[in-house]
Amino acid sequence: MPHAISVSLLYFAGAFSAIGRASESLTLTVKDAERGFPLSDLAAVILERHPGNNLDKVLETSQWSVDAEMVDDPNDVYLKGGEEVAVIPPVSGG
Description:
Signal peptide: 1-17
Radius of gyration: 13 Å
CATH superfamily: Beta-grasp domain
GO biological process, one term: Mo-molybdopterin cofactor biosynthetic process
Low-confidence stretches: none
Keywords: Nucleotide-binding, Signal
CATH architecture: Roll
Number of strands: 7
Mean pLDDT: 93
GO molecular function, one term: nucleotide binding
Shape: globular
Protein name: Molybdopterin synthase sulfur carrier subunit
């Protein structure tokens, strides 16, 4: 039975520029309560919430962090609610 969870999102660099905010809370519908919400599905939810910018390009090359831990494979991570999820685009410097 579907239920809702809330997560906090943090946007850095190009993700911040694309949507004009550094953070937001997001409510997600979870279809499988035992597993949680797949992190790999989060980009689609964010894009639906923030259409009409270049956020899709940013998310294609970004990495994810959950509770300050970098995620190697978003397909292996399921959100249970209460997590802080960061979108971390590649940065260049010199």
